[in-house]
């Protein structure tokens, strides 16, 4: 009788079912354990909206001591912040996140100086910084401010027709660049060497952004002495075009750069590259997609940058400097030296053929220990104007250059991007067509097809 029970069909079915259930439970358990231990996800959005930037990953992985992120808000709002903060804890075990309800823990909130819901404090060691909003840029910025023990200040020279930081004009202004610097934890200020011929001690780096007039010799000497004594400077020298509002040759400053190994040519680079035209760029804009091996541009592989109205240059080492080019224009580019006429002769034998160097970076040996001078030179200042700063990698390149000048190479990377607005703008007739087709045409068509199939079968 026992033998018949063992060989019964119901018994075999029960054993098979039990075995398969145990196998499925084991597989699910293993998957859950692996999922908890190795939290992996794939972001299929074009803007990588649900992924942290290269800069954040680099900084968080490089933490040498624990970091605590404390979020003060109502419990109903915790999940909104958790979706973002979980990405930080997934990168490094050194990051810990605490969620605090100020109503239930008023003493802790008061001790932290919290006066409103949605406040986020990032603490590393004894340092505390507030993230002003629940965004990657603010959180990562707070971490950077905690890690760095100094204030970085970018000083922009003024008084000779340079670009203005507070100018909102799309073509000439630098107001968006000022905002980008603030998000990257740089303070900004303007200085005039005509008023006082010295670089303030709090300037981490000075920026010469497209002067229209010739610098006086005292200004040139101040800049020269500053870099040659360990200072850091970013030069953006526009081609000396003699049309409309002409740009001066600035021969004295150009001579200093030449002595350092960067020879600026009096020409205008044009690039009739069809790829640039597909991107909506004219031949006056050089499109760059290939870069040299240099820390400023190492992270830009696969990223495009655009340089409108640029001049070319040649770079070489000198007995005091080591200079590298950052990138060249395409093979289809050329440079014209006819800077006083609106027409360009493409077949002019005097035109220089591409590829052409339009940016370089160098170091100056001061002879003093840990006191290296650094400089970066671009052949145009137009690429950081309000209309071009947002082009693909332009902002990253500019901030990378400043980080390299500031000796903050660990911060050089691709930064958090602003969320893209992908709204579809339609006319009234287009909107009515979409509404009618989705609400009436397609449902009625499907209904008629269903009735037709039913009638045939009947």
Can you tell me the CATH superfamily of the largest domain?
Class I glutamine amidotransferase (GATase) domain
Uncertain segments of ≥5 residues (pLDDT<50)?
none
CATH class of the largest domain reads: Alpha Beta
Biggest sheet, open or closed, and with what strands and sense? 7 strands, mixed
User: What quaternary form is this?
Assistant: single chain
**Strand sequence of the main sheet, in spatial order?**
6-5-7-8-18-17-14
Apparent shape: globular
CATH architecture field of the largest domain: 3-Layer(aba) Sandwich
How many helical stretches? Answer: 12
* Helix-strand makeup class: alpha/beta
Q: Quick check: average pLDDT? A: 88
The proportion of strand residues reads: 15-25%
What Rg, in angstroms, do the CA atoms define? 30 Å
Number of strands: 18
CATH topology-level fold name of the largest domain: Rossmann fold
């Amino acid at each position: 009788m026992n033998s018949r029970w063992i060989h019964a069909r119901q018994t075999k079915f029960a054993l098979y079912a039990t075995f398969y259930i145990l196998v499925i439970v084991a597989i699910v358990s293993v998957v859950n354990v692996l999922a908890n231990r190795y939290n992996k996800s794939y972001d299929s959005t074009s803007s990588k909206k649900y992924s942290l930037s290269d800069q954040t990953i680099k900084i968080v992985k490089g933490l040498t001591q624990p970091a605590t992120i404390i979020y003060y808000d109502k419990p109903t709002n915790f999940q909104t912040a958790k979706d973002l903060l979980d990405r930080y804890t997934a990168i490094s075990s050194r990051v810990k996140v605490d969620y605090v309800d100020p109503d239930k823990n008023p003493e802790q909130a008061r001790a932290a100086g919290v006066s409103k819901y949605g406040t986020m404090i990032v603490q590393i060691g004894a340092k505390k910084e507030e993230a002003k909003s629940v965004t990657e840029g603010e959180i990562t910025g707070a971490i950077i401010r905690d890690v760095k023990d100094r204030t970085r200040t970018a000083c922009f020279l003024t008084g000779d027709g340079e670009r203005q930081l507070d100018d909102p004009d799309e073509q000439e202004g630098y107001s968006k660049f000022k905002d980008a610097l603030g998000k990257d934890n740089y303070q900004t200020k303007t200085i005039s060497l005509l008023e006082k011929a010295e670089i303030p001690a709090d300037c981490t780096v000075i920026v010469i952004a497209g002067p229209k007039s010739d610098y006086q010799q005292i200004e040139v000497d101040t800049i020269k002495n500053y870099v040659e004594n360990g200072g850091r400077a970013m030069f953006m020298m526009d081609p000396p075009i003699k049309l409309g509002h002409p740009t001066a040759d600035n021969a004295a400053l150009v001579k200093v750069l030449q002595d350092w190994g960067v020879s600026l040519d009096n020409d205008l680079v044009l690039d009739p590259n069809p790829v640039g035209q597909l991107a909506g760029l004219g031949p006056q804009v050089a499109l760059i997609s290939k870069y040299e091996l240099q820390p400023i541009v190492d992270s830009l592989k696969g990223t495009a940058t655009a340089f409108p109205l640029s001049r070319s240059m040649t770079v070489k080492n000198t007995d005091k400097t080591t200079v590298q080019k950052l990138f060249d224009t395409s093979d289809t580019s050329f440079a014209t030296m006819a800077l006083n006429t609106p027409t360009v002769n493409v077949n002019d034998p005097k035109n220089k053929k591409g590829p052409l160097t339009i940016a370089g970076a160098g170091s100056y040996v001061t002879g003093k220990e840990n006191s290296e001078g650094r400089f970066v030179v671009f052949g145009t200042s137009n690429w950081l104007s309000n209309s071009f700063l947002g082009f693909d990698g332009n902002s990253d390149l500019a901030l990378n250059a400043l980080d390299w000048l500031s000796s903050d190479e660990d911060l050089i990377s691709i930064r958090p991007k602003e969320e893209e607005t992908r709204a579809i703008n339609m006319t009234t007739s287009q909107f009515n067509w979409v509404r009618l087709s989705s609400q009436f045409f397609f449902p009625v068509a499907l209904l008629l097809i269903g009735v037709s199939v039913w009638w045939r079968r009947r």
